[in-house]
Amino acid sequence: MYELLKTEGTARRAQFHTVHGTVQTPAFMNVGTSAAIKGGISSYDLVDLKCQVELCNTYHLHVRPGDELIYRRGGLHRFMGWERPILTDSGGFQVFSLAKLRKIKEEGVTFHSHVDGRKIFMSPEVSMQIQSHLGSTIAMAFDECVENPAPYAYSKASCERTTRWLARCKAEMDRLNSLPETINPHQMLFGINQGCTFDDLRIEHMKAIRELDLDGYAIGGLAVGEPKEEMYHIIEVVEPYMPKDKIRYLMGVGTPGNIIEAVARGVDLFDCVMPSRNARHGHLNTWQGIINLNNAKYAEDDRPIDETCDCPTCRHHSRAYIRHLLKANEMLGMRLAVMHNLYFYNTLMERIREALDEGRFAQFRAQYADLLDTRI
Fold first, then answer.
1. What span, in angstroms and rounded, lies between the C-alpha atoms of 350 and 356?
2. Residue 205 annotated as part of some ligand binding site
3. What are 175-211's pLDDT values in tens digits?
4. Active site residue 268
5. What is the pLDDT of residues 348-360, one digit of tens each?
6. Which of 213, 237, 272 is the last residue of a domain?
7. Does 314 carry a binding-site annotation?
8. 173 and 38 housed in the same domain
9. What domain count does the chain have?
């Protein structure tokens, strides 16, 4: 259940109540694709890093180790040792991004696994069944991810199919949640707004899917290479048509600046692989901008990554040491860097919430939206 606490302009400060705990929003979901954050971060680490929600990947877990195996282990929470909320994506994005050979029909999509090449069929019903096996807090609807830019006629037909698929997802989710053997009978379902960068398609699709009265609504199909101004424009176009009493999730976004700007436009929830992926390559977030630890100037720099940060990495280690570890391909280097970036993102969301609580989000946005995305 979404509980709106206050607003500042279009920005929203809220609480999202789930069977696995309450999420303070706006919030950033840390991405643990295969039930782990890349970089050697455990579920116990995530608690210390202020993570509220972890995002896991339906497609990857279906392929390996298999959702039925996880079901026999008692579901994803028990399997991972993580007690807080988990959102599982539907597998749709991976089907369209990883599968070289795929055939889309009204029933669903047939494609080949990127791991072993075996043929897999994914449909709205199959996606819901897999996510029910995983027992996640929030399941995402199975949708078609269309490449940007796409022809208008194809985008329109795809939106209509995604709406039909969403109705099937809801029916199947309702059925699964009523079964006595279901791990999480309180599993929530979020629908996904599509329509590429066509304003009218985005609006019509949002109007159609809000009729299904789901637990939350996501904006999908953005952050795939289009200019950030285009992404902000689409959020502004869609936002007035999104239910005010439901949580809003911008999928796959993004940089700290993207997040601040999307919060200003009414978004509550975010996810992105960027903080962990960038960290593994030495690109680290600070409150002064982004540093690249690979640069020679940090070889003898005894300061922490960010002198204002109190994450475990910054409390104990220097830039020089972490740079050495990364250069020597020591796993600890990646782990320490990823811990810092995740802590930074979760602290960013904390500070956004504080600014909203105190009615000074506009000043916070003016101070940090551009600065945090600047490369030092």
1. 10
2. no
3. 999 999 999 999 999 999 999 999 999 999 999 999 9
4. no
5. 999 999 999 999 9
6. 272
7. yes
8. yes
9. 2
200 noted as active-site residue: no
Q: Using the predicted structure, report yes or no on whether residue 149 has a pLDDT greater than 90.
A: no
Cβ-proximal residues to 361 (8 Å cutoff; 6+ apart), any chain? 8, 9, 11, 263, 264, 352, 355
Check if the beta carbon of residue 372 is closer than 8 Å to that of residue 257.
yes
Token duo for residue 124: 């709205």
Distance CA 372, CA 254 (A): 12
- Give the tokens for residue 287: 């409150």
Q: Are residues 242 and 93 in the same domain?
A: yes
State the catalytic residue, choosing from 45, 268, 271, 306.
271
In a shared domain, residues 126 and 231: yes
Q: Is 194 annotated as ligand-binding?
A: yes
Show the tokens assigned to 107: 């029933």
Identify the domain containing residue 218 by its residue range: 2-272
Q: Establish whether 199 is an annotated binding residue.
A: no
45, 89, 268, 306: which one is catalytic? 89
Distance (Å) of CA 135 to CA 68, 71, 78, 179, 185: 11, 8, 10, 13, 8
